[in-house]
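Entry for the shared binder. Reason: the reviewer on the internal report wants the predicted structure included alongside the sequence.
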Amino acid sequence: MLNNIQDIRESGLLELYVLGELTPGDISQVEAALELYPELKTDLNEIEKAFHSYAEAHAIQAPYNVLNKVLAQTKSDITTDNSTSSSSPSSGIGTLAKVALLVAFSTILFQFFSNRNLSGKYAEDLKITQDNCDDEKQNLESKLALYRELDKINNRSISVSATEKYPETKIIFNTNEVSKRNFLQFKFLPPLESNQSYQLWSLKGNNPPIPLNVFEDISELLEVDFVEGTNAYAITIEPKGGQDTPTLENLIGVFSITG
């Protein structure tokens, strides 16, 4: 579940929206967010400009007959999009991005696969570009898959009960008893020293706290351990690398699962 404008910006949905690669449900979610947060329209414009810049920087002149086929297909896509533009506000943005990317990547792929006598440096640059695109696509798809987990019907979102020492802490704990998956969404955490880490704990009945994930990076949605029968999860600041028992004076907050 995307709770605020920052969640939306970090989810990768805007980039996929510009490319026209979202499901109808995700499109509705983005367009609802655009109504709620008009400033996201500026984000969309910037993303579109970035895609155009990428296309211009990496485009290679293709033979006339190849480029002609690409433009003919593009014209067909534009005609189709125009016929439905009244019901889909994203069609104009999606078409512009597709035109730039279609031309750029079609010419790149044509040269890469049809001309095996490329110079070593030229072929190497194309391979690096292709690998970078594949990596970014995989990263966005993985991120989107994680956020879709939060939309599942059995997901529960629990706000942190921050301690008096760290009252500014804002974290959302997402737990799903059916899929047995837990996720942390970070809004604000107290900063770490260079020799410290955050650590998650499972609190289960009268048992000692069970040490779980140790981490420093809080820039993304983080999947964490699920422990069956946990009454509450807690998060502390520990020496770097974590430890077997929690430092209670550095208890940041607790997420109550039961009650």
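Summary line for the report: Helices lie at 5-11, 13-19, 24-36, 40-58, 64-83, 91-114, 120-149.
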